[in-house]
Amino acid sequence: MFENEIDLLKDDVITSTCELVRIPSVLSESSNPSMPFGENCNKALEYMLDLGNRLGFRTKNVDGYCGYIEFGEGDELVGIVGHLDVVPEGENWTYPPFSATISKDKIYGRGTIDDKGPVIASLYAMKVVMETCKITKRVRLILGLNEENDWKCIEYYKKHEEIPSFGFSPDADFPCIYAEKGLLSVFICSPIVKEKIQIVKIDCNQNAINVVPKYCKITLSVDKSISLDDCIHNLQNLVDSHHFSISIHKEFIEKNIFSMNSHGVSAHAAHPDLGTNAISQALVVLYEFFEMYGITNDLLSYFYKNLNLEYNGKSLGIDVQDESGFLTLNVAQLNIQESNLVLGMNLRIPIHTTIDFIKENITASLPSSMAVSFSGEKKALYLPKDNWLIQTLCEVFHKTTGLDATPIAIGGATYARAFPNFVSFGANMPGNKDMCHQIDEFISVDNLMLATKIYTNAIYELCKR
Q: What is the bridge-based pairing of β-strands 422-424 and 166-169?
């Protein structure tokens, strides 16, 4: 159904996606109460609301925290919830990350798959249904601006606006997500003790907790009684023995200060095994280097013995897994706070394991000299595979594409868990590499249009219910 109507909109879908991607809507500080997430996030919201108005929808800006685009009549509200904010662009892109460059049937840019392209596909799907079908429900596209951080936008929406009866988020994979792992961010710290080799500065490019870090620079000072050249030589040997991508540089020779610059490959924290962790590499070498000089650092010791280069919970002694997979962890942040060395991790917890169980095990594993705090806690999402919503969306996907439609579980966290009776639904196609949070993020034009067709059929079927 609707194929001809959608094909006629192809140029508009591509143009709108590119225009939205060109807005660098990364969270930023703001003193303007009407732009709580910064000027560029606000520009993205205004762009979408203006586009919605031009396409004939009802729209609302919810105090700058979020907005929505709606059509239809009736008491029941069907929801689609996506986000317009993006993670920082990162480095070494083939094309400028906010240029929305089209090359070989692909639109490149930060947000193309996460989540701007799918949001545009959802909007034009709504347009087709609005203009070709008579429905007895309202359909609302809810637009968040703070999904990549702490979801303040959607919490604000839930306090001030109507909650949909059911719906989906176009922010993961097809055919349909029936389970999303629980989330927990863990921060462990220990005091920095004065030693003959001292960590004086750390720069990890303010890496987001949900991204595998691709860069970490640690600056060290060396007591005058120790040869700086010998230090650099010994550290270089350790780097070479691990075949890590770490470069060493003299900073201030007169003060015996040098740095190690670790380079990795970024990936989404839900799939830490797909990246190369720059912080983990640096800490492995630094622990062995300190050991060579008889220096003990509790946090480095804990990391080396319990985390190292692992990305699963077995290294913490927490060997839990179920149908959603095993416990994964991403060492994401490293910094100095008030004379303490602080390490931040992001965990994705199997759906049948409680977050309290994980907290208890981590706390028990720490030596008395170290402290731990937790944040970013989100309970798992789970709907049985035979749930009517799961079955309906899988059937839509199968009828539209002809592909198998077995629902899947993921480690990512989407807005689907913000509302009852919601699941995540596309837009990444089965078998495609997940480019979410990756360098050279893209969506192919063919998949963008296919997603538009799938969403059109899904909206129609949900409104028939």
A: parallel
